[in-house]
Each structure stands twice: as structure tokens, then as C-alpha cells.
């Protein structure tokens, strides 16, 4: 495929690209997208909970909470992009794109959990 | 062949039965679980708003959106089954885009609300 053909295909509306894949793959892609959306919602809920419930310095709590909530929003947008890339790849008979999102979310969540633990321990020690 | 098959003369299907209903049902349930997630986050935002009228707006809108999503999940099921039976793709472009915009908006609202309440 030439670069011009590839560029033209990537500009076409999603429902006009290639041939529709087996309906089961389309629905599986949609369910995967919704699973990521629910993960984004859980991150947002965790962010609100951190601000409201975790003890410790208000600045640190709010910073951690904002990071989690913002990550939820970024994850939701990234999930849509990944869903669309998957659907395009299936319609064009191409390999599904690799997603860095699971590793990114796992990394950020691990750091956030560690930060929450540190905040709690510091509060316990200083109180 | 089973005893029942021998007695009633059933033959094994040449093709597997199409599980349109099961796939559509799983997808509709995924939409409903998502709606519950939206409702949960919206409830939290209402709690943070603490009865302030303006601050309650994101939570109220989120709860309304969750109810709409619940109904949309049911509608998605029937539309998916009908489309697949008609040989069309069950691609839900509008639904996916709407829920993406909604969740991103909820995220921005949550950050703004917590920033104001600080």
C-alpha cells in the first residue's frame, strides 16, 4: 500500500473504510472499549475518594486526586482512539495495533497506591 | 449420535447456530455496567457538591446520563440483533463517541468541582 492510499484510508469515516468484519469482532471491540471506560470511571472515583478520605497533607491529597481523575479522562479519550484504530484495522484486514495503555495505567496506579500509602503512614507517624 | 437423535431422527447441524442474541446480550450488559459506573461517579460528585446548587450540576447531569445509558443499552440489544440479521454491521459509532465525550466531560467537571471546593 502506498503512503497516499494509507493516508486516504485513514481520513475516510470509519463506517466507510474497508469491509465490515465479522459482527462478533466488532462487538468484542466495543466491549473492550466499554471495559476501559469503566476503568476510567473507577480511576475518577478513586481520585475523588483520595481527596475526600485519605489523610495527610491537603496539597498532596489533592494533587494525587487530580492526577487520578485526569488520568481517567485521558484514558477515556485514549480508549476511543484505540477502539477506532482496532475497527479500522479489522476492516482493512490489518494486524491490530499494539496498545501501551495497560502498561501505562498499571504504572500510574502503582505509583498512586504507593503515594497514598506514604501519605497515610506519614499522617499516622506525625499525628 | 445421542439416543434422542436416533429416536427422533435429528441430524447434526452442518453450521453452528449463530449466537447473535448472546453477543448482543453481552454487549448490552456491558453498556449497562458502564451506566452503573457513570451513576456511581455522579453520586460521588453530588456528595462532594454538598447541596450547593451550581456544584451539583455535574452530578445531576451525570445521573441523568446514566439513566439514558441504561435505556440505550436495552435499545442497543434489539438494534444489534436486527442489524446482524439484516446482514449489516452492528457498529455503534455514535454511541461510542457520545459516551467518550460524556466521560471526558465528567472528568473535567470532577477536577473543576474539587478545585473549587478546595
Description:
The complex is a heterodimer of chains A (127) and B (118). In chain A, 80% of the residues lie in helices and 0% in strands. Chain A is mainly alpha-helical and 127 residues long. The longest helix of chain A is centred in the middle third of the chain and has 35 residues, at 58-92. Chain A is elongated. The mean pLDDT of chain A is 86. Chain B has 118 residues and is mainly alpha-helical. Chain B is 76% helix and 0% strand. Chain B has helices at residues 3-8, 20-49, 57-85, 93-117. The longest helix of chain B has 30 residues, at 20-49. Chain B is elongated and about 70 Å long. Residues 10-17 of chain B have low confidence and may be disordered. Classes of the chains: A mainly alpha (127), B mainly alpha (118).
Question: Briefly, what is this?
Answer:
Chain A is mostly helical and 127 residues long.
Please render the helix and strand layout as text.
The complex is a heterodimer of chains A (about 130) and B (about 120).
Chain A: H1 3-11, H2 23-53, H3 58-92, H4 101-126
Helix pairs in contact in A: 2-3, 3-4
Chain B: H1 3-8, H2 20-49, H3 57-85, H4 93-117
Helix pairs in contact in B: 2-3, 2-4, 3-4
Features of the shown structure:
heterodimer; A: 127 residues; mainly alpha; 4 helices; elongated; B: 118 residues; 76% helix
How many DSSP-defined strands of chain B? 0
Number of helices of chain A: 4
**Number of β-strand runs of chain A:** 0
What overall geometry of chain A do the principal axes of the alpha carbons give?
elongated
Mean pLDDT of chain A: 86
What is the succession of H and E elements of chain B? HHHH
Q: Describe the largest sheet of chain B.
A: none
Strand composition percent of chain A: under 5%
Fraction of helical residues of chain B: over 70%
Determine the mean pLDDT of chain B: 84
Q: Biggest protein-protein interface?
A: A-B, 39 and 40 residues
pLDDT < 50 stretches of chain B = 10-17
Span between N and C termini of chain A?
Answer: 66 Å
Order of helix and strand elements from N to C terminus of chain A: HHHH
Kindly name the structural category of chain B.
mainly alpha
Helical segment tally of chain B?
A: 4
Assembly context of the chains: heterodimer
| Beta content of chain B | under 5%
> What is the CA-CA span between the terminal residues of chain B?
71 Å
Amino acid at each position: 500500500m502506498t503512503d497516499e492510499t494509507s493516508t486516504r484510508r485513514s481520513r475516510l469515516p470509519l463506517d466507510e473504510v474497508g469491509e465490515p468484519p465479522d459482527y462478533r469482532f466488532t462487538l468484542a471491540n466495543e466491549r473492550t472499549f466499554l471495559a476501559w471506560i469503566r476503568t476510567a470511571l473507577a480511576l475518577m472515583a478513586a481520585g475523588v475518594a483520595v481527596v475526600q478520605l485519605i489523610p495527610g497533607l491537603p496539597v498532596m491529597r489533592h494533587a494525587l486526586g487530580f492526577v487520578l481523575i485526569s488520568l481517567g479522562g485521558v484514558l477515556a479519550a485514549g480508549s476511543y482512539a484505540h477502539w477506532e484504530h482496532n475497527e479500522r484495522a479489522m476492516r482493512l484486514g490489518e494486524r491490530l495495533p499494539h496498545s501501551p495503555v495497560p502498561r501505562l495505567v498499571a504504572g500510574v496506579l502503582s505509583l498512586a497506591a504507593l503515594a497514598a500509602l506514604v501519605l497515610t503512614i506519614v499522617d499516622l507517624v506525625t499525628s | 449420535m445421542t439416543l434422542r437423535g436416533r429416536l427422533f431422527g435429528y441430524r447434526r447441524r452442518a453450521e453452528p447456530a449463530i449466537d447473535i442474541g448472546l453477543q448482543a446480550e453481552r454487549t448490552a450488559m456491558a453498556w449497562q455496567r458502564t451506566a452503573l459506573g457513570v451513576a456511581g461517579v455522579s453520586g460521588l460528585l453530588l456528595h462532594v457538591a454538598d447541596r450547593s446548587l451550581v456544584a451539583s450540576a455535574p452530578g445531576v447531569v451525570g445521573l441523568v446520563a446514566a439513566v439514558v445509558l441504561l435505556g440505550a443499552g436495552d435499545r442497543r440489544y434489539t438494534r444489534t440483533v436486527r442489524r446482524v440479521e439484516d446482514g449489516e454491521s452492528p457498529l455503534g459509532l455514535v454511541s461510542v463517541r457520545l459516551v467518550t465525550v460524556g466521560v471526558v466531560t465528567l472528568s473535567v467537571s470532577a477536577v473543576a468541582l474539587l478545585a473549587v471546593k478546595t
